[in-house]
Amino acid sequence: MDLQTIKQYDKQYFMNTYGERTNVMFTHGKGMYLFSSENKKYMDLLAGIAVSALGHAHPTLTNAIIAQTKKYIHCSSLYYIEPQAILAKKLVDNSCADKIFFSNSGAESNEGAIKLARVYHKKKGNLNKYEIITLEKSFHGRTLATIAATGQEKYHKHYDPLTPKFKSIPKNDIKAFKEAINENTCAFMIEPIQGESGVNPLDIDYVKQVRTICDDLDIVLIFDEVQCGMGRTGTLFGYEHFGVKPDIFTLAKALGGGFPVGAVCAKDKFASFEPGDHGSTFGGNPLACAAGIAVMDTLINDNLVQSGNTVGKLIIDSLKTIMENCLLIKEIRGMGLMIGIELTKPIAKEINNKLFDQGFLVGSVGENTLRILPPLIITIEEGLSFVTALENILKEYIA
Ligand SMILES: Cc1ncc(COP(=O)(O)O)c(C=O)c1O
Q: What pLDDT sits at residue 397?
């Protein structure tokens, strides 16, 4: 089907929640690259918004998915499932969690985490602890509870009354956190490195203080690692940068390398679900977990977290060098391969389009920030070719 017909179908049959899409359709991918129906090659520095950690058509992931589909795709979790057991063990062996529950997306994982925190308190007899504190500029998903958790008003539009008992406070403000706590406080949910608001890592000291307060007051500390987890920031999990361990953390996006799978990961003490408390038809199905195993194994066996971190550091350092002489860059933020480039002018979309024309896929957040979240297989040469392309585009504005 040609692009014109697809656009016609899309307009007529699809609910337009994504606005005007970029004028391209990809037919296939390989490694760092996506190829369009017009046979143009694009370096994918967005990875489906932090999803395709192994790039495209990675043989280990592809073969694992093919092998599993040949055995069986689905089986209810009413029965034992080998890939589910193996993936749960791999996540536990490599993180601070003791127990895992599998879901299908980031929002669903966060819903699961919120439910788990409430169940933890209910089972302790703390019947009044149901309020969840989150941060302003956070993003936790699109279900009704997770939009209420999301501290950005633009996502609340049309959904009043919001699911009650969520409140958002400014980030890195320990006084605001202390003031927000009351006898109803159940949990504090944070992204250690906020993604959707343009890559904003929290202060290490702040997170440490939060950990201490949560310990002292029996507040469940939930880290939303849907975007920053799975090696994205140069460590397997984002919490490793902060010298603390969350009570519960959530994953999705890169966990299946493009196949939908999410996880709620909890320490024993907080893993309070019992039979009947939670469930999912598709969550933890054999195919999703086979994909997750392939991703985990490849990240670890091929040292992709370390190599991604090396390339990420180089990109960040190179961008910072450019910034010294370029009035158009206000700030470079990020860790590993989760990088935000804040511009001094509202030209992010324009620059994004120019990069696209030159064969680079990046994201933009709001009017001023570019975001790059490349696959972890990116090489130094590929990272630097993006930096050079961006530098040349920015020069056009100054000339
Ligand atoms: C930090 C964070 N949490 C949750 C979500 C929601 O994930 P999903 O779209 O898979 O529901 C996202 C998606 O961008 C995210 O970045």
A: 87
Atom of ligand 1 nearest to the CA of 228: 1
Which residue, by CA, sits nearest to atom 3 of ligand 1? 140
End-of-domain residue from the set 238, 271, 301: 301
253 sits in the region (left: phi over 0; alpha: psi -120 to 50; else beta) called left
- Assess if residue 67 is contained within a domain: no
Ligand 1 atom nearest to 138, measured from its CA: 1
Residue-wise over 144-154: b if at least 16 C-beta within 10 A, else e? ebbbbbbbeee
- Strands 338-343 and 329-335 come out as antiparallel
Q: Do 202 and 350 fall within a single domain? A: no
Q: What is the pLDDT of residues 321-353, one digit of tens each?
A: 999 988 999 999 999 999 999 999 999 999 999
Q: Per-residue confidence at 399, pLDDT binned at 50, 70, 90?
A: low
- What is each CA distance from 79 to 69, 75, 84, 312, in whole angstroms? 18, 7, 11, 42
Considering the domain architecture, whether residues 190 and 221 belong to the same structural domain is answered as yes
Across all residues in the chain, what is the average pLDDT?
97
Whether 63 is covered by a domain: the verdict is: no
Q: Which of 196, 197, 233 to mutate to test the pocket of ligand 1 (most atoms within 8 A of CB)?
A: 196
Same domain? 314 vs 169: no
- The predicted model gives 45-52 an average pLDDT of 98
pTM: predicted TM-score of the whole model, two decimal places:
0.98
What residues line ligand 1, using a CB cutoff of 6 Å?
Answer: 49, 105-107, 110, 139-141, 191, 195-196, 224, 226-227, 252
- Whole-number Å distance, alpha carbon 18 to ligand 1 midpoint, is 15
